[in-house]
Each structure stands twice: as C-alpha cells, then as structure tokens.
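User: Could you check the structure of this?
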Amino acid sequence: MQTQNIHIAIVEDDNEIRQTLNLIIDGSAGFSCKYAFPDGESALASIGNLPLDIVLMDIDLPGKSGITVTRQIKRENPELDIIMLTVQSDDGSIFESLCAGASGYLLKDTSPAELLVHIREVYNGGAPMSSSIARRIINSFRVIDNPLSDRETEILKMLSKGLNYKEIAKEVFLSPHTVKTHIKNIYSKLHVGNRAEAIYKALKQKLI
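Assistant: Sure, the predicted structure tokens are below.
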C-alpha cells in the first residue's frame, strides 16, 4: 500500500505537454506534481527550495538547454534525481545528459503508464531508459576490431600527444625511417591521409 507520494517537478516549454504531464502525474495515486516550469531559468530559481524527489527535464528549452540546467541542479542539489524526457535520441544528447547527472533518459513517446513506472524506478534507485536509448548505449560499448598492431597503436598514441617522428623514434628505440614506415601503414589501415585524420578516426573508434 502506497503511504508516501513521490514529489515531482516538470521542466517543459511546450504548454500542452507540460499541462498534460502535470495532470497525469498529479492525478495518479502515489505521485504529486505541484510544480511545472516553462524554461530552465525559472526552474533553477525555484527547484533548490522545493520539497522534490524527481525532476522531469526536457532538453530543447528556450535559453539554457535542459542538459545545462541538469548539470547546475545536480551541482547544487546532488540528491535530487533528474529524468530526461525528450525527443532527442542522438548519442551526443544521451551521453551529455548522463554525464550531467541525469538518472534516466526517456523519449516523449513513452506511455503515461510506463512513465509512472519509470519515475518509481528512479525513486527506488534505478536508472530507466527507453529501449532504443539503451540499445544505443550498449552499441557504443561494443569493441571495434583494431586493425593496428600494438606497435602502430603505441606510435599513434604518441602522435596524438604531439610528438614528431624523431621524438617517437627516440621513445620506442627505432630509427626515424622505421617510424615513418609505421605511420604510413597506420594511414593506410585507417584509410586516412594525415596525422589529424588518423587521430580523429582512432579516437572516434576508440582505438587509442
């Protein structure tokens, strides 16, 4: 039997969505939603002084983005859980939100019933995500086969730190000519034409 309400605030700039969420949540047993904000600035001015457990945060807000607002709220109120509720499903938005301190990431096509389940999940210590978001995160951790040898990987790491051929040769006890050959092989294997492209691709594919 539910004996205590979960207190929720909404940060959403779309009036219709904000009002609908407010009505759904506040009208459900075990949930209370007395605060809703149309932008990040008004939320930041009030949230720290309110008796809240969870904030539902849109990303695409006027003024400060929901990610920026999340980061600031978590800095000042680390115990407050924030769930991103957004249409944004790109990798950048997902990872920036999680790095900012979000406890969950849901898309706006989440049904009302699922949303309430996920809110309670966060309240109980979970970290819910829409299934498509979870899949993107899992895919990001899959290891890409590294076409480079250990020596080539070592040399590319040194290139990324700004070392030139002679400095690398000295570090790995090889001749500059041999280092140059290794670098030529690196470019060939990564299908790039220069140092900057090689470093960018290697970092993107998590080869170094």
